[in-house]
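User: two proteins, same treatment. go.

Assistant:
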Amino acid sequence: MKSIQVFEPAQAADQPATDVAADLDWAAANGARIDRFNFAQQPLAFSGNATVKSFLDRSGPGALPLILLDGEIAMAGRYPSRGELTHWLGVTDAAPAEVSGCCSGGRCGG
């Protein structure tokens, strides 16, 4: 089972953090263990992880989010896309993220 840890900035209630929730739920449904940590709410998770602490010492909290895959840095500064999660998990038939919109094949409206 792959482990994905997401170390988020203190104010992670912005749109990208909200949008990635569905993709992380998808990853969990496809066998990944997902852990999310917020810098303001769980500071010990940051200081207690040598990889994360080293990253923060070098780059600062402005470089968050930091994504670890099986304990190693996989990405920093942004959240992963569904395609990147698919690649990391080795899933071959990933369904695209649900997109809200017209449900009549583009024939809605006047």
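Protein 2:
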Amino acid sequence: MIIRTIKGVLHRLFVVTLIYSFTMTNITFAKERGLSILRDAEIEQIIRDITEPIFKAADLEPNAVETYLLDDSSINAFVMGGQNVFINSGLLLAAQNTNQVIGVIAHETGHIKGGHLSRFSEGMSQMTAYSLMGLLLGVAAMAAGSADAGMAIMMGGQQVGYRTLLRFSRTQESSADQSALTILDKMGQSGKGLIEFFEILGDQDLVPERYQDPYASTHPLTSDRIERVEERVKASPFYDVKTDPELEKEFLRLQAKLYGYIKPLQATLVKYPLSDQSVNARYARTFGYQRSKQIKLALAEIDSLINEFPDNPYFQETKGQILFEDGRVEESLEPYKKAVENLPSSTLIRMSYARSLISTENDTYLDEAISNLEIVLREEPNDSFSWKEASIAYHRKNDEAMTHYSTAQHFLLTGNIRGAMINAKKAVDLLPKNSPNWFKAQDIMMASQTNMDKQERDQQEQEQKEKAERQKERNRS
């Protein structure tokens, strides 16, 4: 399981605009306390298994909708920046069954279908793309954060709270509900989960707003809204349909993994006591022990699972991660390699394997590491971490052209515009002329240079304005 900050993710959401519009200017990022993205191959696959039928039923292209898991204990899910769905880990742990999660995601998909986020562009025509990115980052930092992290964004001296920006109107909530129920009917799914989720949030209206879970405060519940949903759900021919048992089994695995990873070890041992030798209990304890640095116990638990399920790629990956993070890099290679062999389509597992190969500092592994990273980057070209690892590997192989090219990609995706421009320029000089990477390096170089020039002009204009204001003050005095 990998934790990444929201900053890199939002840079990724807007990087295409950077390359093709040449309009981005400076950005001031909001405080990011407590906000991060959780990436895990197994969890992402389970979430895809849950969400893809929803998106298809909504006539959305599943590959065009990005779903992110936030490492946040509050109960929340929201859509932002187009077709991007953010789900808090707290929501997944609070859900009592898969059908509840399906209901919530169907509701959020209803907001996408209804175009309810168009308000982000209304009244913001004067904002540059970079300003909008900063706003979205700040909104995410508050929407996904706890009470103390839910700070306001300062833009032009004006304070904007995330609840003001994300709060959906009652009309939009009702519209998203009805859209969700249409989606669920098209899927042949019961809407019971949505009602049950409303019940989980039911007491939130009695709690002061600043203590409410974000979902309750940004998706206001009303009695008439709940009644309308209940009426339609009960009238559906799919009211008593049960969720696919295999999907339910996957979801329980997801919850066990998340619980062990996020919760304190003592809480994990209470929920999954040693007397419970089920697969999910052993899996949860594996992560609980690892996070509390009890590596021998973590390895004992995961080894018991591997002995029982030797071809499970996620168990092998977990063992590789435990060994890698314990500094036993060479030992981590075997389980990581087995994980890749058993699930070659997983870019996350490949990336972890490549990272371990590079981290051994054994140059005989570099070609294999680069080969795996090339596969990863074909599938995830906007993965800044993989570009960084690639730059390290190419540097160790004394491949200057690809070192600078990979570094330029990494800097572009992480917002270091000057660094991207410098390295792209060097890559253009070194790469074979008219090769695909040569053209891409030129795109990065041109976009970065245009932005730096614009930043300089904006700074000069701002300085001139400030100088004029100071002169006015002196004249008045």
